[in-house]
Structures are given as structure tokens and as C-alpha cells.
Amino acid sequence: MTSSATPDSHDKRRQQHREAQFAMRLSLFVGVLMLTGKMTAYLLTGSSAVFSDAAESVVHVVAVIFAVFSLWLSSRPAIPQFRYGFERIGFFSAGFEGAMIMLAAGSIIYTTTEKWRHGLTLENLGSGVLLIVAAGLLNAILGLYLLRMGKRNHSLILEADGKHVLADSWTSFGVVAGLGLVMATGWKPFDPLIAYAVAANILWTGGRLLWRAMKG
Predict the structure, then answer these.
(1) What SS3 class is residue 64?
(2) Which of 74, 120, 125, 185 is least enclosed by beta carbons within 10 angstroms?
(3) DSSP H helical segments within 75-189, as ranges?
(4) Largest Cα–Cα distance of the chain, in whole Å?
(5) DSSP class of residue 86?
(6) Alpha-carbon distances, residue 157 vs 70, 73, 99, 180 (angstroms)
(7) Is 79 helix (H, G, I), strand (E, B) or coil?
């Protein structure tokens, strides 16, 4: 019975790895697409919150590239120098992604503060809001998919990426809320205030991810 179970177990792991690889490639493709859309929205609006959202997407794309490498490395067989294989790279990848999330939050705070100091200039908000809404919805769907695939395949790398994508979607929804308030009231400081609130939220997400990676 043991000999017949071993090939099945091996096939299952190969299937899980293929699914995880597909999910990560999809995440990278969507990440680049989202970055393009958000930069377009920033060029249209000049919004500090939109710029911060785009900056977070830059960090996300870098983190996903690292996660793709980590996923590939974690599937490599053990070698004399690493007799237990490379699966622990998943914790390092999760920690790296958590650090990237926190870096994005710092970028949001800094950029928003600088733009507020130099004066708030906003235009074409309607078009910008539509682009950010689309980006937020797509990222929310992708984030939930990555979390489900991560739990299904026992992949901390996929779970970490899913949490980062969801954090990115919350950033987008926060930006939309800020721009909506600006459009409704004409009070421009809503834009940076919402950006600060979103930065605090993703700081919390990144901190939890870092803590989990350190425990691993």
C-alpha cells in the first residue's frame, strides 16, 4: 500500500505546484496591468492618493517577481548544502512581501505629505475614479483567488501575495472614496486624508505578514 501511495502523493504535489505557478504568473500579469491603469489615472487626475496607489502597485510587482522566484526555488529538490530542501523560502518570501507592503505605506505617507505641502491640484476626477474602481475590483477578485489557492496548495507564498493584492484593492477603494468626497464637496484635503487612512490599514496588513513569517 505504501508503494502505491507514494506515486499518488508525488503526482498531487506536482499538480499543486503547477496550480501555484499558474496563480503566480496570473498575479504578475494582473499586477503589471493594474500598474499601467493606475499610472494612467494619476496622469489624468494629478491626485496624490492615486499616485500613492500606483506606487504601491510598483512595490507589488517587484514583490510578485520575487515570489515567483521563491515558488520555483521551493520546489527544487534537496542538495548536500540544503538537505531538507528549499521549502522554508516561503517564509522568507512572505516576510519580504510584508516588508514591501510596509514600504508602500511609507511611500504613501511621504508622497501625500509632499503633495499637500506644495498644493493640491486635481482634474479629470471622473475618468480617474472609473479606472481606479476597475483596478480595485479586479485586484479584489485576484486576491481572493490567490488566498484560496494558497490554502488549497498549502503555499504561504501564494497566501502572502493574496494578502498583498487585497491590501492593494483596499488602497484603490480608499482612493475612490477620497476622490468621491472631493467631487461631492469640492474640499480637496479629503484626497490626502483618505490616503493616510489607507496607509495605516496596509501597515497593519504588512506587520501581521511579517510577524507570521518571523514565527516560521
Answers:
(1) helix
(2) 185
(3) 89-117, 125-152, 156-185
(4) 73
(5) S
(6) 8, 11, 14, 35
(7) strand
